[in-house]
Prior knowledge:
The complex is a heterodimer.
Chain A: H1 3-16, H2 18-53, E1 58-62, H3 68-80, E2 84-90, H4 92-104, H5 112-115, E3 124-129, H6 135-147, E4 152-157, H7 162-197, H8 199-212, H9 216-257, H10 270-290
Antiparallel strand pairs in A: 1-3, 1-4, 2-3
Chain B: E1 9-20, E2 23-34, E3 38-42, H1 49-56, E4 64-69, E5 72-73, H2 82-86, E6 89-92, H3 104-113, H4 119-133, H5 148-160, E7 166-170, H6 178-193, E8 197-202, H7 205-213, E9 217-222, E10 225-226, H8 239-242, H9 246-268
Parallel strand pairs in B: 3-8, 3-9, 6-7, 7-8
Antiparallel strand pairs in B: 1-2, 1-4, 4-5, 9-10
Amino acid sequence: MTVRWILRRARRQAVSQRRALWIAxxxxxxxxxxxxxxxLGLRATRGWIGTVGQGVHVxxxxxxxxxxxxxxxxxxxxxxxxxxxSVRLVExxxxxxxxxxxxxxxxxxxxWLNDLEPGYFPRSIExxxxxxxxxxxxxxxxxxxxxxxxxxxxxxxxxxxxxRLGAWVRFGQRxxxxxxxxxxxxxxxxxxxxxxxxxxxRRRQAKVLVILGETAxxxxxxxxxALAAAGLLGALAAMLVLRLAxxxxxxxxxxxxxIAPTPVGFFLASWESAVxxxxxxxxxxxxxxxxxxVSGWGDA
Amino acid sequence: xxxxxxxxxxxxLEGVSYLRAGSPALADVTLGVSFGEMVVVHGLTGSxxxxxxxxxxxxxxxxxxxxxxxxxxxxxxxxxxxxxxxxNIGYLPSEPLLIPDETVLENIxxxxxxxxxxxxxxxxxxxxxxxxxxxxAWENRLARSLSTGQQRLVALxxxxxxxxxxxxxxxxxAGMGGDDREGIVRALVWxxxxxxxxxxxxxxxxxxxxxxxxxxxxxxxxxxxIAGAPSIGLVPAPVHFAGQSEREIAESSQAIRSSARRSSxxxxx
Lengths: 300, 269
């Protein structure tokens, strides 16, 4: 069969089996949506934790009288403590830059930030603890000890705020994974079921074409092309829906959680979109292949 | 120039045996059909006609024996090579297999599609064959909307379109009335006159006689064996075509077709 004939067969199959192909395209849309929301959701929640907590569990604010050498010594001491993942000495200038970066994301940020100077900020030590089930208790214990150190003006045990948010976000992520997995399996099962329901019709068609002398590859090609096109259509539609709906959805969720909005333009990377637009037609092609049973002598 | 087409078989079945569900359906059958020849295999139900035709069409592999088509014993061919043999055979199996969701015209055109014919000429050829075998008004009807008899006629048109060098038809007139039977005979004669080798099976003595009257050679099949002398027709042994190149066979075929066209032109004038 020539290319023109194969394309003609694919077009005619698409018309005669349009209902099944629309359902397949819908299943591809759901699958692509689930995948896209998973990627974007994970990235957004990781960003929330980073924005709010910056992965810090305890912050010790140092008095101005404390010499830089003493601050460095204290930092080294903390670093050697068991259960401490990382320790960082934050200079006042860096603290001001961070505040300005965080405030820039908030619509409520005013020009007053420009008037601030590094001298307004104390030097601080940020401590991140290794993850474990008793992290809040260990953070509280470290805070208590740091409060007793000379030269420490105050201690912020982040366990009540950031750590709790982090725990909720992680819980949300796990829940999200479960939902994503269930939705993915449901969409995939629906897609496979739809394709396999047409298997009998395709088997009969294949039988006719085998008798006429068509090769197995050419018998499968029109079905492969039709399902790959359904996959591409579903993936493109999902990409469009995500592009239009995701920013609004993210803004709504962030507003409800009171988190600074994620920068505008936050979307899938070009390579991620390309992977989605390639993976869906490829899956369609494979489904087209397995759903068209063709054999040699015995089936003719 | 002397062509040897009179002794050139399109197909040569040599000592073919075939088991169906463990019982012998064909036992040591030897049969040849030449270009421009029509062979009618007549036998009762269960005598092995359908098995013989399925083996001849390359749709079933015999358990022993050889099936020579254009110098190749297709029994020894790899499965992936068989389609290239089958596409040169117009085969109507006992069940008229059509694609139910396709139109009548598209079903007929498919036979030309696998041979790589251009779409436009395939459409014209399919229309012409449909008009000859059945009713051209059916062309846009879906195959599933036809009765079994109508489906059989469409499947016959699909087997004849082209026409291919070998036409193998199993019970083409089953359940058909007088006019349809005459139409089928005319169609098979049309194919034969174009140089095709025609192998037709029937259990209907009346239809068998109509084909013989139209110039067919009848062989009787009984319990999987050809009754009487081995039916080799115009072909004494496969050596006659085994020694010929594909080009020579093609030239012989072309000569027969030209000769048939000339004689049909003379008749019409």
